[in-house]
Amino acid sequence: MAKKLVITQVGSEISRPESQAKTLKALGLGKIGRTVEQPDNEAIRGMIFKVKHLVKVEEK
Asked: Taking the model in full, what pTM does it have?
């Protein structure tokens, strides 16, 4: 079974560069407190790295 990442948005996208807001949207986030489950792969890890100050990540 493939590993999953549980990603929770903890910071606001307001006053952030547009690319960070689009990255949050691509991850399935957009509001503080929203949580999504994504597969653990290099593409998702790269997106998380770009917005690491706005999200909390847990491995499942």
From this structure: 0.92
